[in-house]
Amino acid sequence: MADTPTSLWRAALRPRMLGLLVLLLAAAAVCARLGVWQLDRAEIRGAASAAREAERVVTAPPEPLADLLAPGQTFAGDLVARKAVVTGTYDDGATLLVTGREHDGRTDGYLVLTPLRVATADGPAVLPVVRGWSPTPDVPAAPAGDVEVVGWLQVGEEAGAPLVDGRTDAISSAQLLATWGGPIWTGYLVVQTSDPADPAVATGLEGLDPPRRAGSGLNVQNLAYAAQWWIFGLFAAGLWWRLVRDEAAGRPPLPGEAPPPDDADRARPADVPSADVDEPAAVRER
């Protein structure tokens, strides 16, 4: 027989079911709190891990760019934030300003993007270099002559709006190839240091933090524990509802418990002979 709202309501209000509800709600509340605690742990451990990773990236020794990535080569994900060193000559006249980038909470400045002409084993190539962030569009010229640049690699971006008046909203190797020529690297370099030093630093050009690698936020293990505790809490609530449905459907009586009246009526045999039914005459004459 299908459960009706009335039968479910009556079953839910039975003292035994109300007691179970209190217990299971308490269990669900504990599970929810433990899930929140694990989420907090995921944030704390994730932040600590990110801080250690950032320190490692800053202090890591640089590797020759030629050993990490060649012009036109596909940029692998594990190259993000790898520290590289390269020597070349800035083409200051082709400098671009990248708009719409936040730095220390500010969005009213520009990334200064200058091509570095590099001599490779296969001939000259172009490396996009982000020299820093400037609060104004008036940026002093890049160092002249050969310069050794140390910085962090970052993957190139999708193409943005067309370049207008030396400004762009994306660091896209495809767009830069059309503007600067090639061959060109598919990523770009975020400057940490240069030799000789960039004169723009003395007039307000600010250095940038290393690029962040994917997955440097929440701690995955603690996040999984939090999800498990929340699932347990939902299971406790679902278990009570399942017990209510079983109660409404008519559960079997427990040992020593009298069956419900309707069950007792169904259990009585229908063909039990009455005690005062007249016996046959032959039996009475005996």
From TrEMBL:
It holds the Pfam family SURF1. Signal peptide: none annotated. The keyword Membrane applies. Its main location: membrane. GO terms for cellular component: plasma membrane. It is a multi-pass membrane protein. Residues 249-286 are annotated as: Disordered. InterPro entries: Surf1/Shy1, Surf1/Surf4. It comes from Cellulomonas flavigena (strain ATCC 482 / DSM 20109 / BCRC 11376 / JCM 18109 / NBRC 3775 / NCIMB 8073 / NRS 134). This is SURF1-like protein. Keywords: Cell membrane, Membrane, Transmembrane, Transmembrane helix. It is found in: Cell membrane; Membrane. The chain crosses the membrane at residues 223-241. Belongs to the SURF1 family. The keyword Cell membrane applies. It comes from the Bacteria. Residues 252-261 have a biased composition (Pro residues).
